[in-house]
Design goal:
It is a single chain. The protein has 393 residues and is of the alpha/beta class. It is built from 16 helices and 15 strands. The model has no long low-confidence stretch (mean pLDDT 96). It folds into two domains: 155 residues, Rossmann fold; 216 residues, Rossmann fold. Strands 3, 4, 9, 10, 11, 14 and 15 form a seven-stranded mixed β-sheet that branches. It has a four-stranded parallel β-sheet with strand order 7-6-5-8, sandwiched between helices. The chain binds pyridoxal-5'-phosphate. Pyridoxal-5'-phosphate binds next to helix 11 and helix 15. Its cofactor is pyridoxal 5'-phosphate. It catalyses: (1S,2R)-1-C-(indol-3-yl)glycerol 3-phosphate + L-serine = D-glyceraldehyde 3-phosphate + L-tryptophan + H2O. One of its GO terms (molecular function) is tryptophan synthase activity.
């Protein structure tokens, strides 16, 4: 694959494994084993069976008729919001729990910001009867109390990260520390296409089911497996990578990644990484991140917790640099309006993350017969209180 990872774990200038020496044995074990395990027939059989019977795949490709009329193109929604636990995150969590079992691990750790990845991880640990510890910033635990309760109900232990800004990056540091202390029995489930190699490649492969299904569904519905446009929102970039994956080598398919501009890219309250960031190292890989002149990570801001991340995965950094995908951004207000529009025109309340991708439709012009696929990465139930506060329902 032209845009895939090379044997050293790089996508062009980006990727690699920039880790403390004490993590080396854990990451090296994964690197040596992951491809062999996930390409094994018994792994594939169990993964596909759980995706079908537990997650509810294939997720539908829905031709959004009223949106199509409004925007003057054929708009399709890839419905990851209909998955068990309400987003694409479960695709990766299922893949990694099966991998952990085959590596003989007895304990799972994860980090979470908004709690969506923590809930997906707690879910698959319950499914397999494996101990689960989720690190979460103390401030995020207050902001996302319902997801903390969900994780506890599912049997996970939620540990507050009390250092630094008490948010996602501090939870990630705590999880890394735990992994160093427990290298033999513990697997660390990272929730996006970030982290040291092999995580970005592994997570992309688990999420690639999204574009694999989409190609088949487009062929059935339009007679052509290739659309003109594929769009998705980007936090770390896992739903976008899954949505782009099987279209990467079809250079005629335009890929659009939508970041969170927050209150505006020049307001100091933003998470528009490709616009504001520079090259550097974040969470174990070389990528593009928001940083100060001396290389300290800048605290990002977005109304959507899932897009509130100071970097992007290394494969996205590469797709951005070589211009294979276009990176754009949408503000809080634009995304809330798009969430309302989708609710009232299609009867689908999207996650605020997803609403960023939908909002970008307003800024595009199409030819009449263009086929456009948007990844509906998650449902909006978790965001109701934010919508209510904004619109005053
Ligand atoms: C977590 C999340 C995202 C952002 O994460 P990616 O890794 O960029 O996909 C987007 N949408 C939803 C619904 C999420 O829960």
């Amino acid at each position: 694959m032209k845009y895939g990872v090379n044997e050293q774990g790089y996508y062009g200038d980006f990727g690699g494994a920039y880790i403390p020496e004490m993590l080396y044995p854990n990451v090296e074990e994964l690197r040596q084993q992951y491809n062999k395990i996930i390409n094994d027939d018994s792994f594939k059989a169990e993964y596909n069976k759980l995706l079908r019977d537990y997650v509810g795949r294939p997720s539908p490709l829905y031709h959004a008729k009223r949106y199509s009329e409004k925007y003057g193109a054929n708009i399709f929604f890839k419905r990851e919001d209909l998955n068990h636990t309400g987003s694409h995150k479960i695709n990766n969590a299922i893949g990694q729990i099966l991998l952990a079992q085959r590596l003989g691990k007895k304990r799972i750790i994860a980090e979470t910001g908004a709690g969506q990845h923590g809930v997906a991880t707690a879910t698959v640990c319950a499914l397999k009867g494996i101990e689960c510890v989720v690190y979460m910033g103390e401030i995020d635990m207050e902001r996302q109390a319902p997801n903390v309760a969900r994780m506890k109900m599912l049997g996970a232990t939620v540990v507050p990260a009390t250092s630094g800004s008490k948010t996602l990056k501090d939870a990630t540091n705590e999880a890394m520390r735990d992994w160093i202390a427990n290298p033999v029995d513990t697997h660390y489930i990272i929730g996006s296409v970030v982290g040291p190699y092999p995580y970005p490649d592994m997570v992309a492969k688990f999420q690639s089911i999204i574009s694999q299904e989409t190609k088949k569904q487009l062929l059935e519905q339009t007679g052509n497996e290739l659309p003109q446009y594929v769009m998705a929102c980007v936090g770390g970039g896992s739903n976008a990578m899954g949505m782009f994956y099987h279209f990467l080598d079809d250079e005629g398919v335009k890929l659009i990644a939508v970041e969170a501009a927050g209150k505006g890219v020049n307001t100091g309250h933003s998470a528009a990484t490709t616009f504001l960031g520079r090259e550097g190292v974040l969470h174990g890989s070389r990528t593009i991140l928001m940083q100060t002149d001396d290389g300290q990570v800048v605290e990002p801001y977005s109304i959507s917790a899932g897009l509130d991340y100071p970097g992007i995965g290394p494969q996205h950094a590469h797709l951005f640099k070589v211009n294979r995908a276009k990176y754009v951004s949408i503000t809080d207000d634009e995304s809330l309006q798009a969430g309302l529009l989708c609710s009232q025109m299609e009867g689908i309340i999207p996650a605020i993350e997803t609403a960023h991708a939908l909002a970008y439709l307003e800024k595009m012009t199409f030819e009449k017969n263009d086929n456009v696929v948007i990844c509906i990465s998650g449902r909006g139930d978790k965001d109701l209180s934010t919508y209510i506060k904004h619109f005053g329902f």
